[in-house]
User: Fold this.
Amino acid sequence: MSQHTHHHHETAGTSGKRFLMATILNAIITIAELVGGLLSGSLALVSDAIHNFTDTFSLILAWIAHVLSGRKIDPRNTFGYRRAQILAAFVNALFLIIITIGLIYEAIRGFFQPHEVAAGLMLVIAVIGLIANIATAFMLSRGRDDSLNQKAAFLHILADALSSVGVIVAGICIYFFHWNWLDPLLTLLVALYMFKEAVPVLRAAVAILMEGNTQLDVAAIQKDLQAFPVVVNCHHFHAWQIDEQRINLTFHITMADCMLSEAEQVTDAIRLLLKQKYHVDHVTIQVEVEKGEHKAILADEK
Assistant:
């Protein structure tokens, strides 16, 4: 089994059951932090509860996308529903960036408007939140490097876990040393880190949604194809991805005059080459005879 196929089976995504359990855990964290924040007077916990609420939303969205992506191809959606996970990754990453911008703003404001909190209760709730976030992150960790949808959801939970660590450290220092400035400082550092992690996910999702060619070296493919004796030229390449694993490619090839059976053998060999060397899942080839020798490699290239 090739590495690409192995990844395809490994990253069919976290099961719906895992997403459901992670969502329930995250909802419990949200309620606990909101109540604890209100009782202790900790804005850090309240803001973390709001952040957790957005994560619960993101997990629900990721789970819906996971379920949709498993639906079969139909006449209306001839490529299936796998783009649902890319859409969810886009929304989640964008949402996370917006949240981190809000956290940065609140952190900066916290430097100028510090206030007292019940550090003991703050610590207890933060520790509970950290344990629950670690458990949730563990559920979502498998396959996150190959699924944008899952990675976006995982980053949301990681942000919460880091926030909980920040709240714990800040709570200890506030309790013993009254270093109120640590709370906004740690919030700022966590927000900047998560912003850095979310941007590549958003960029990758946008590239796929915009039908961008994010993987294939078209010039190298053209060179390989023209190594076939009967292939005179190849042009009008269109390459795009359905999701992170599935690459589609269409193009025209100009062949020397030959029998149809020979042309079919060549196109079969080309498909095999593209599958094995470039991991292209779906190839559409338009065969032409003795024309288009000088056409551009890309369809609308001038």
